[in-house]
Amino acid sequence: MEKILIIEDDPAIREELALLLENEGYAPLPVTDFTDVPTQAADARPDLVLLDIGLPGRDGFSLCAALRKVTPAPVIFVTSRDSGLDEVRALSLGGDDYITKPYSIPVLLARIKAVLRRRGGGSEPADTLEAGGLRLSLTKGTVSANGRTAQLTRNEHQILACLMERAGKIVSRADLVETLWDSQIYIDDNTLSVNMTRLRGKLAELGLAGAIKTRRGMGYQL
Amino acid sequence: MTFREFLSDRLGRVALLLLCLLLGGAFLLATGTQPGVLALLGIPLLLVFLGVQTADFLRQRNRLRELEAVLEGLDQKYLFAECAPAPGDLYERRLFDLCRRAGRAMAGAVSDARASQGEYREYVERWVHEVKTPVTAARLICRELDGETRRKLLAELSQIEAHIERALFYARAQSPERDCLLRQVDLGEIAARAIETHRSLLIQQGVRVETQGLDRPVYTDEKWAAFLLGQLLQNSARYRREEPVITLTARPLGKQTQLIIRDNGMGIPAWELSRVFDRGFTGSNGRTRGSSTGMGLYLCKKLAGFLELGLSIASEEGEGTTVTLTFPSREDLTEL
User: Fold this and answer.
1) What is the CATH number that goes with domain A3-118?
2) Are A184 and B192 a contacting pair at CB < 8 A?
């Protein structure tokens, strides 16, 4: 489990962030005493550091430089200061990424995952997803079942991936739309219906006509 | 100053002189002076008077021209009295003294106003950073709620964020050079950032966003450009009709790059189109819907001017609105 050091002085954010990261399968290490953060970081040996800039005592910029000396862990700045100059300064001081508050949670998690992967700490994302007798290739954008393969469009691919990741659970239409927007597919409810119909058509050709079930008033389920 | 103006200004003096000459002449005639002698006395007197007035006129005119040239050359015109060439006569010296004292009081007032504006800007920026912390915490806390409530709350939080952002950029627009960082950015990244910021509003309004050819570099400040685009997206989402679609299309225009933002919304009546960038202008759409501040497009225009972005709008009522952003080429960009 990857350890993530949280250096954030606002208690509400610190606690909620720790909870969120725990739920996502990381080991959060929230810092509550800001007197000697570098030593704490050296002792904790984190895999990643989330660093606020406006901290009591010492600001995040100088802290970043100090952290760089004691730990090889990548540093992500998470701050409400959003001027371009701050960002350049943060990155030139050895920060690996710069996220501005208020951030959306999926974005934050995606950036954490990306930085960990870049540092070789995180696991490579699996190339294939398997669920309900379906096999989805994430790089090729194809789905196969019963020895047959179908090519999917980007939208269909994302819809199916989302359902497969939560196989067995009901995924509401609104959640599906949200997930698609996360992947920069900006569709509306009607377009979702159209894509869903096409996707079902393709799955039917693979011999899995009823694979995606509609739960009236609730959403879809694989 | 023309000679006629000068004369009319001195009408009293001229009239008095003529009256004196007439009375004097009449008196001399009555006491037996010959008309020839009278003419010999009167004509030179008149000529001397005219000569003095003409010389006065020329001197004053030249002096005024000189002062006007000085004023033209000044960036801060209120420093005029400090920079003008020293006056010759006593009366003018006194006048200048008065002007200088007034000017100093004015300069003091201006610098006080500047300082307090700067302080206010700093306060707004600090306030914005502070208020973002609880909003972030609220976003994190929302995560624990069930689907529908969470979505509604997130949408409200996004609205708060949009207002905060506008306040921040409004403060920044007063002295934009302080935060501006021009560099090469992918247009797609700017669009993704703007859409992400306003996704709650866009999804809630059932908007579909289509993008075409956005993977090209532009030279601009990413944050400002994203803010600007965000204002346009918000407008498109607010003034939508059925099945709203926003298309973002990029195309090269010589060395420049154009980003075209087209929606199929309500559109803007032709007679309002020229005023949409005015500060505080709310069109008929804004008034019927309420909640329009007339600030969004005004800020866009201001920031676009600073980023050297071309910003133009076209619209047909009931059909939709098209906004075109023209990003300058690298060479065209004046160094900041």
Assistant:
1) 3.40.50.2300
2) yes
- Please indicate whether, in this complex, the C-beta atoms of B134 and A12 are within 8 angstroms of each other: yes
Domain with CATH 1.10.10.10 in chain A: 128-221
Q: What stretch of H or E contains B191? A: helix B187-197
CATH number of the domain located at residue range(s) B185-327 in this protein: 3.30.565.10
**CATH architecture group of domain A128-221:** Orthogonal Bundle (1.10)
A-chain residues within 8 Å CB-CB of B133? 10, 13, 80, 101
* Mean pLDDT, rounded, for A128-153: 85
Pick from B75, B58, B67: which is nearest to B96 by CA?
Answer: B67
Q: Does ipTM come in above 0.85? A: no
Question: In Å, how far is B229's CA from the nearest CA of chain A?
Answer: 16
Q: Which two tokens stand for residue B275?
A: 């005023």
Mean pLDDT of B101-118: 89
Residues 56-75, chain B, touching A (beta carbon < 8 A) = none
Q: What pLDDT sits at residue B194?
A: 93
Domain ranges of chain B: 3-105, 185-327
CA distance B304 to B196: 21
Spell out which residues of chain B touch residue A16, defining contact as CB-CB under 8 Å: 137, 140-141, 143
Chains A and B form CB pairs within 8 A to the count of 92
Q: Which of B129, B140, B159, B186 to mutate to test the interface with A (most CBs of A within 10 A)?
A: B140
pLDDT band at B334 (very low <50, low <70, confident <90, very high): low
Residues of chain A with CATH 3.40.50.2300: 3-118
Residue with tokens 């002295």: B175
Cβ burial B295-311 (10 Å sphere, 16+ → b, else e):
bbbbbbbbbbebbbbeb
